């Protein structure tokens, strides 16, 4: 539940105000129990919501929770229907998750604030350029020739290496290290991320693995989010590039020279080997592995734990290891299950 030690809760909002903020169509139940001026005080799950609360419903798995909810209102998909008599106010939107996002932004904010300051324990080089209205936390280290834009937040213990360039309105959480990289505007980097370190490149001779000196960098576009403990290696010769609007989850490994296209989503524990290219608006499920020097076409989707060992054309939807078209993967899974069941019957 919402802990006011961490979050600020806004004043109540009327149903009409919420509908406007979330771009929802209002559907009232029969009778005069609720109207556009009915106040809403909090956002809660269906099972915990009471009178005066608003909730969210999108997955049919929770239909029973919806039917039993005591919430005053609920955000639902535009095509939502119910067989039971409607007891609460529906706020309909064709993209209910986006409406929910706007709802949360309307009601809640962080309790922690970031006034313009540089903590006394921070070590900031006199040769660094720091923009206006920046917050630099305790024990941050900013080295020579660093450039940081306006309205940036750098949390405690982060390290900004020589020559790094950061755009405006970046939020860099605690214990992040940034080296050999350029970062655009409105970038969020969660705690413990490592960006710009050497890639895994060696030349082996005489039983000795000789380190290849990496002379590229990491380029991160605008409005990108990088998860906690994610690692992005700098290029060995070409640059490693994360284009605008990408979302990279926790514990993702992106190797040297990789290019991630605009708007792609990379889920937790994905590993992408060196020099592979991921197209625009791709979605890689958890623990997907991409071999090196491959191309994944635009708008492709790879199911969780998929192993990609060859190029994928645009709009591919694949799963399994090695990956095959998603329907073939489902057929393989069913066939294996049937073989196991048949074997068990023969053993009896």
UniProtKB/TrEMBL annotation:
It catalyses: a UDP-3-O-[(3R)-3-hydroxyacyl]-alpha-D-glucosamine + a (3R)-hydroxyacyl-[ACP] = a UDP-2-N,3-O-bis[(3R)-3-hydroxyacyl]-alpha-D-glucosamine + holo-[ACP] + H(+). Residues 37-105 form the UDP-3-O-[3-hydroxymyristoyl] glucosamine N-acyltransferase non-repeat region domain. Its EC number is 2.3.1.191. Pathway: Bacterial outer membrane biogenesis; LPS lipid A biosynthesis. It is an enzyme of class 2 (transferase). This is UDP-3-O-acylglucosamine N-acyltransferase. HAMAP family: LpxD. The active site is at residue 256. Homotrimer. Catalyzes the N-acylation of UDP-3-O-acylglucosamine using 3-hydroxyacyl-ACP as the acyl donor. Is involved in the biosynthesis of lipid A, a phosphorylated glycolipid that anchors the lipopolysaccharide to the outer membrane of the cell. Belongs to the transferase hexapeptide repeat family. LpxD subfamily. The keyword Protease does not apply. The keyword Phosphoprotein does not apply. InterPro entries: Hexapep, LpxD, Trimer_LpxA-like_sf, UDP_GlcNAc_AcTrfase_non-rep. It comes from the Bacteria. Keywords: Acyltransferase, Lipid A biosynthesis, Lipid biosynthesis, Lipid metabolism, Repeat, Transferase.
